[in-house]
Amino acid sequence: MTYTNVKPKVLLIGCIEHAQSAWGALGQLAELVESTATHRAEFIQECKEGKFDDVVALYRTIASVALTGLIDEELLGVLPKSLRYIAHCGAGYDQIDVHACSARSPPIRVSNVPTAVDDATADVNMFLILGALRNFNTGMNALRQGKWRGRPAPPLGHDPEGKVLGILGMGGIGRNLKKKAEAFGMKVIYHNRRELSDVMSAGAQYVSFDELLSTSDVVSLNLPLNKNTRHIISKAEFAKMKDGVVVVNTARGAVMDEAALVEALDSGKVFSAGLDVYEEEPKIHPGLLSNQNVMLVPHMGTWTIEVSSQQSSKCCIGSLRIQTILAMEEWTIENIQMALEVGSLKSPVPEQADL
Ligand SMILES: NC(=O)c1ccc[n+]([C@@H]2O[C@H](COP(=O)([O-])OP(=O)(O)OC[C@H]3O[C@@H](n4cnc5c(N)ncnc54)[C@H](O)[C@@H]3O)[C@@H](O)[C@H]2O)c1
């Protein structure tokens, strides 16, 4: 798609924190418009009043969900018919109904910002695997209560060496986790929507979903949340797992049925769990809070000052966290720029790879 005389319109929902200069430069290519809505009803009103008519691309932030709510069928119904691209500034894009975007005629193409947070999130994932295997939570809690390891002392934990790690969702974070887990002697198997090439899988064995459930000592959830993956791990799936399995989730809370996890923990089917994400953040299921075997982290997967290795060439000491956000914002703007200039996105979401 090329635009010659009239500049295409690009809508910003949320705010650009650091990439003002790249955003300003986009202004040479497009007319930049903004929403001033403070909640969903106001945003819908703006759309209905035609404020965003002729908008071709939309830049949105994760925090903008507070202003518009989810990008679901209702919102897609009022967003301008001219809209062709949604550039999401984040790795996880479960706030967007990608299926509904694909179903629109013509479809709305969606992009995210992959890779920038792979290292930091995979680190937390590994921390949770080790903590859950070794059952560190019990001893750590007892120590803070002045009881050393507690009485009775926690049961002995498990070594990662020789254990089978089943990665469900072998994307950026899953592949990064694989490298880390192998350094601890774990054998990695994975299940993905599609089997990866030999280069991408780097020796990890591709297995069916059921085989992953039944043969893993540790099940790690690293797939996006969407209609197909909501509660992909529930009662029936726990029943297929090994007795004493460890379950770790750094993806999104709702890929797992939390109530079913609590039941599986209580019955001893699941030995322990490590969680960074929850179904209704910041609410935590009381059964998880009270269970000493569970490692709980308050969604801190990307909570680091350092940039990921993929972005490290851009970093400078003292402003590293800013550089991460800047890189993500610039990436999102590049998606829009490519869409306007050549009609395709730099990083389309995997569900739309064949669109
Ligand atoms: N805890 C955090 O702070 C944090 C940080 C970044 C990302 N995340 C979450 O982690 C998720 C994974 O991130 P990523 O960057 O690795 O994403 P990614 O898109 O690179 O990888 C996801 C993988 O899951 C696979 N997949 C999708 N549906 C599947 C299914 N039904 N069964 C099996 N595999 C399936 C995809 O094919 C892809 O390979 C994100 O969607 C996001 O929600 C969390």
Task: Note down, in words, how this protein is organized.
This protein has helices spanning 20-26, 40-48, 65-68, 73-78, 98-103, 118-134, 136-144, 172-183, 198-201, 209-215, 235-240, 258-267, 286-289, 320-342, and strands at 9-13, 31-34, 55-61, 85-89, 109-111, 164-168, 187-191, 205-206, 218-221, 245-249, 270-275, 294-296. It has 355 residues and is an alpha/beta fold. It contains 14 helices and 12 strands. It is elongated and about 75 Å long. Nicotinamide-adenine-dinucleotide (NAD) binds next to α8. This is Glyoxylate reductase.
In short:
This protein has about 350 residues and is α/β, with parallel strands linked by helices.
Structure ligands: nicotinamide-adenine-dinucleotide
The biggest beta sheet is recorded as: 7 strands, parallel
State the strand order across the main sheet: 8-7-6-9-10-11-12
Alpha carbon gap, first and last residue: 16 Å
What is the count of DSSP helices, taking H or I runs of 4+ residues? 14
- Which range best describes the helical content: under 10%, 10-25%, 25-40%, 40-55%, 55-70% or over 70%? 25-40%
Query: Could you report the average pLDDT, rounded to the nearest whole number?
Result: 92
Named CATH architecture of the largest domain: 3-Layer(aba) Sandwich
Q: Tell the overall outline.
A: elongated
Uncertain runs: 307-320
Radius of gyration: 22 Å
CATH superfamily of the largest domain: NAD(P)-binding Rossmann-like Domain
Order of helices and strands: EHEHEHHEHEHHEHEHEHEHEHEHEH
> Pairing-aware structural class of the strands and helices?
alpha/beta
What fraction strand?
A: 15-25%
Number of domains: 2
Task: Count every beta strand, where a strand is a DSSP E run of 2 or more residues.
Answer: 12
Which fold does the CATH topology of the largest domain refer to? Rossmann fold
CATH class of the largest domain: Alpha Beta
Domain D-isomer specific 2-hydroxyacid dehydrogenase catalytic: 67-349
Family: Belongs to the D-isomer specific 2-hydroxyacid dehydrogenase family.
Keywords: NAD, Oxidoreductase
GO molecular function: glyoxylate reductase (NADPH) activity; hydroxypyruvate reductase [NAD(P)H] activity; NAD binding
